[in-house]
Amino acid sequence: MFDRNVGGTDRLLRLGFGAIGLFLGVVVWTVLDRPVAGGLVGVLGAILLGTGLARRCPINRALGVDTRQNE
Predict the structure, then answer these.
(1) Max Cα separation, the chain?
(2) For the stretch 35-49, what's the b/e string if a residue is b when 16 or more beta carbons lie within 10 angstroms of its beta carbon?
(3) Residue 36 has pLDDT above 80, yes or no
(4) Helix pair 35-54, 8-30: axis angle to 10 deg
(5) What is the pTM assigned to this prediction?
């Protein structure tokens, strides 16, 4: 598909914030009964988790950004 362009601190931040976002999305949806807000937060968290796990980000690619450091 395309080369990896996410690494190091960027990857850790994506994984951390993605997990938090996914969790908060579920909480907002179920506990606070706000499905639209919870869904949006959850989807954003899932996207961050996915790009962190795959180490590929289409936005980074479009902008020509590569956060790997000689990996």
Answers:
(1) 46
(2) eeebeebbebbebbb
(3) yes
(4) 160
(5) 0.90
